[in-house]
Write a sequence for this structure.
């Protein structure tokens, strides 16, 4: 490699680093181009490879990032930057014990590296070792006393470890105060109403972040106050995609299926989690009898990966609960359940056939007549057709 | 009441009626002509309260909320004496988000049948008074005649309170008395969430049998696929449904030709088989057996059973030689047979494919 190559590689690398580290505001294409030029100029450069991996991870190309990490580690198995990235990927994939071993090795080599300490704290939390998580985070706080994110992470660790006095002391030091952490502290104390009120106050004062809005929905669901929950859900706007998804889930339990369809179908392409959005839309369409649309969303859900079975079952539990809620408040619930009779089930299918025929062919007078007859039978059937079994 | 006051009251009666919303006057007028509402004491005849309740329910069903509200405004003062009317009004209040008002109305009602008690619990839950609702449901649970819907509500309250074992038992108790797809679906999902594979597969088997009905089949198939289960494969109706359908066809024989016409327009082998099996045992008990026999002929032809169809036609013509529909069927012969048979085979092949 010539001196000129090295120089141009360094220039591209510098440009790439500044673009990648700009975060969300960076131009992805420009950053990718700079990284590609840097790698072209200096193919063995691990710095360029690390930037490429970071770029891939930032843009959720996880598989590509994994292959780059593997290639890099084959070339330089001891490179700390690559091993850090590898540890991150292990955490993401839920391989926590392997991540812990790797991070312990890295901590032996670099005991004060804040990124490694943060990752090790995360693993400790996920493995259910709250005290270790706090110890690690306290080391980070010593190095970065002004870092608000680390501070919040430490409060979170204290709350998770139920060290409420320590959490309270640290929350008091937050500037500006964090309504979400205060609410979490109140909830941990069992003061759910106060916690919800704290978040609602923050919302009125425009100080509530998206995660706080999600937390408020969690709290109101836990309190079971449907009226207040509905008001809260109505305030969630489309520019808060995660909160909108959480709101849709809550709406399923309330039986507000039409609203779920309206809210999510419009923002599907920009939503935070398409797989979850598609699963929610499938369930909402199914519950309102729009089976064609439900099938379409189910296909989309599968295209996005299908979803974890327990998560899907929870969505369906909420949907069925919402459907039951609707039945209890339905005007004809007072009588026999109209769906419970085999004849009504068959008539409902017949009604569907006639309405399709009448819809397709405006001149099909017979279909219209049959439609009316089936409707009237279904209407009558709710009262007189009560079989001795049902009685 | 003095004579003068009585006279003035009598004079005012028509104008008071005129102040009521038009719909309300109409409903009350049709309610009970011989037993009109006493406007002075505000005590409605039982029929009037029932008719008002029905009118409010109908308006709500048709999404005519304003009409329902107008009817409710007048009916509100009559509610405490009629549980049926209170229930309709409370449902309207609940549907329009006035849960507190719904609850107050139920609490003011002098009589509280099970359905009203249940609605009260729904109101409590809507208002976030879950603990109160849960406590009342626990009390109710001691009553051996606790309605199934209340038991379902109790199981969901238990689930929300963190007890995941008793809801499964409660819902299974419900199924032992009356089976319905919604409870089965709920139980299936809860069993999945609890990792109870045996229960899950047993419930799935029972739910599968509802796939015999075309509309339910689509819903159940979709639910199964969404939950990652194989598509349902079914050949018989849920337990007891055949017997119930027989009784229902006797009570509502007008439904049979409509079901047959629907099959002629969109043939579905499974439900056609169910109808034909139920109908063949009750033909003799119907008021118009000739029509029923004609239906049997058509259904057997659709199912590709020409011999059976011919036997029914022969019996029909023997017993009812003047029946026009049977004569028509004799004249048209079985010209629809090849198509119907092809459809039937195609349907079976489709199901075999799906099962595979």
């Amino acid at each position: 490699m010539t001196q000129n190559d090295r120089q141009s590689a360094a220039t591209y690398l510098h440009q790439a680093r500044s673009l990648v580290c700009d975060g969300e505001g960076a131009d992805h294409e420009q950053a990718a181009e700079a990284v590609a030029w840097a790698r072209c100029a200096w193919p063995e450069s691990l710095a360029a490879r690390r930037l490429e991996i970071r770029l891939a991870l930032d843009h959720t190309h996880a598989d590509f990032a994994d292959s780059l990490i593997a290639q890099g580690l084959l070339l330089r198995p001891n490179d700390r930057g690559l091993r850090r990235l590898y540890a991150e990927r292990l955490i993401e994939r839920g391989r926590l014990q392997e991540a812990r071993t790797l991070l312990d090795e890295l901590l032996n080599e670099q005991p004060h590296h804040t990124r490694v300490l943060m990752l090790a704290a995360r693993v400790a939390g996920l493995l259910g070792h709250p005290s270790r998580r706090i110890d690690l985070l306290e080391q980070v706080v010593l190095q970065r006393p002004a870092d608000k994110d680390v501070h919040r992470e430490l409060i979170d660790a204290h709350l998770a470890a139920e060290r409420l006095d320590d959490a309270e002391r640290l929350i008091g030091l937050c500037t500006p105060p964090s309504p979400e952490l205060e609410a979490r502290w109140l909830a941990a104390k069992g003061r759910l109403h106060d916690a919800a009120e704290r978040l609602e106050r923050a919302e009125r004062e425009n100080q509530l972040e998206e995660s706080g809005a999600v937390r408020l929905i969690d709290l109101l669901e836990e309190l079971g106050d449907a009226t207040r929950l509905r008001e809260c859900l109505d305030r969630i706007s489309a520019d808060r995609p995660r909160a909108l998804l959480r709101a849709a889930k809550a709406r399923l339990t309330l039986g507000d299926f039409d609203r779920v369809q309206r809210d999510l179908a419009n923002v599907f392409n920009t939503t935070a989690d398409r797989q979850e959005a598609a699963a929610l839309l499938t369930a909402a369409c199914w519950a309102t009898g729009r089976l064609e649309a439900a099938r379409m969303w189910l296909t989309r859900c599968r295209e996005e990966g299908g979803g974890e079975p327990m998560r899907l079952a929870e969505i369906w539990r909420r949907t069925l609960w919402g459907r039951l809620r609707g039945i209890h408040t339905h005007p004809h619930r007072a009588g026999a359940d109209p769906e419970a009779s085999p004849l009504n089930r068959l008539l409902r299918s017949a009604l569907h056939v006639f309405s399709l025929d009448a819809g397709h062919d405006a001149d099909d007078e017979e279909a219209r007549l049959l439609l009316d007859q089936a409707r009237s039978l279904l209407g009558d059937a709710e009262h007189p057709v009560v079989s001795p079994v049902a009685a | 009441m003095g004579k003068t006051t009585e006279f003035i009251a009598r004079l005012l009666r028509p104008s008071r009626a005129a102040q009521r919303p038009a719909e309300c006057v109409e409903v009350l007028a049709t309610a009970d002509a011989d037993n009109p509402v006493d406007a002075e004491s505000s005590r409605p005849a039982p029929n009037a309260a029932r008719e008002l309740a029905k009118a409010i329910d109908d308006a709500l069903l048709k999404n005519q909320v304003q009409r329902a509200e107008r009817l409710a405004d007048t009916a509100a003062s009559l509610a405490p004496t009629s549980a049926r009317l209170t229930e309709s009004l409370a449902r309207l209040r609940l549907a329009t988000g006035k849960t507190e008002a719904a609850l107050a109305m139920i609490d003011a009602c002098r009589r509280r049948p099970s359905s009203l008690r249940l609605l009260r619990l729904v109101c409590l839950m809507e208002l976030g008074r879950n603990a109160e609702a849960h406590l009342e449901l626990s009390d109710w649970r001691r009553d051996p005649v606790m309605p199934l819907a209340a038991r379902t509500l109790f199981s969901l309250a238990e689930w929300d309170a963190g007890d995941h074992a008793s809801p499964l038992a409660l819902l299974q108790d419900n199924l032992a008395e009356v089976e319905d797809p919604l409870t089965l679906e709920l139980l299936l999902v809860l069993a999945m969430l609890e990792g109870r594979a045996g229960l899950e597969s047993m419930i799935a088997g029972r739910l599968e049998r509802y796939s015999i009905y075309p509309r339910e089949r689509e819903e159940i198939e979709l639910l199964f696929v969404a939950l990652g289960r194989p598509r349902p494969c079914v050949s018989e109706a849920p337990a007891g449904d055949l017997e119930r359908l027989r009784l229902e066809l006797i009570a509502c024989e007008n439904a049979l030709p409509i079901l047959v016409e629907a099959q002629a327009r969109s043939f579905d082998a499974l439900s056609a088989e169910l109808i034909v099996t139920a109908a063949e045992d009750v033909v003799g008990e119907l008021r118009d057996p000739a029509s029923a026999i004609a239906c049997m002929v058509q259904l057997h032809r659709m199912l590709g059973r020409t011999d059976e169809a011919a036997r029914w036609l022969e019996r029909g013509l023997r017993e009812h030689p003047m029946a026009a529909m049977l004569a028509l069927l004799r004249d048209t012969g079985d010209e629809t047979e090849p198509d119907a048979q092809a459809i039937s085979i195609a349907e079976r092949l489709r199901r075999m494919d799906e099962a595979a």
Remarks:
- The two ends of chain B are 83 Å apart (CA to CA).
- Chain B touches chain A through 75 residues (CB under 8 Å).
- Residues 11-22, 31-42 of chain B have pLDDT under 50 and may be disordered.
- Chain B has 20 helices and no strands.
